[in-house]
Design brief:
The protein has 129 residues and is an alpha+beta fold. Helices cover 29% and strands 26% of the residues. This is Nudix hydrolase domain-containing protein.
């Protein structure tokens, strides 16, 4: 499994690209958590054989759609947060999950109000294949 990812169009911000790719690949709509930016990772494209940068953001899902552009070629899968790392194909995506878990953990310690504070092992993240 992998997280939604893809190209960044010249006329959109990174946040807009993240939102669009999540809609196209996983059929979910939500609010990109810009202030919780997880970081940048370099990865090699299987189809092109070239290196690309991946920018990862959490997305607060507000809507799950029945139909989306890549529904016929991708499967949406919700997994427990505690299982997400196990099913990720790419090491850099596992690292992004670790960064996110660390941010959530710090928020739980009371350093800042964080709307993912209810995140637990039973919470879910979206992946697609």
């Amino acid at each position: 499994m992998m997280f939604p990812k893809g190209g960044w169009e010249i006329d959109e911000s990174l946040e807009e690209a993240a939102s669009r790719e999540t809609f196209e690949e996983a059929g979910v709509v939500g609010e990109v958590e810009v202030q919780e930016y997880l970081g940048t990772w370099s990865f090699k494209s299987k189809s092109q054989g070239t290196f690309h940068e991946g920018h990862m953001f959490p997305l607060r899902v507000t809507e799950e759609l029945d139909d989306w552009p890549e529904k016929t070629v991708r499967q949406r899968l919700w997994v427990k947060f505690s299982e997400a790392r196990e099913v990720c194909w790419h090491p850099w995506m596992k690292e992004a999950l670790d960064v996110f878990a660390s941010k959530v953990s710090k928020r739980k310690e009371g350093t800042q109000i964080y709307h993912f504070k209810e995140l637990s092992d039973e919470s879910t993240v979206v992946c697609c294949s």
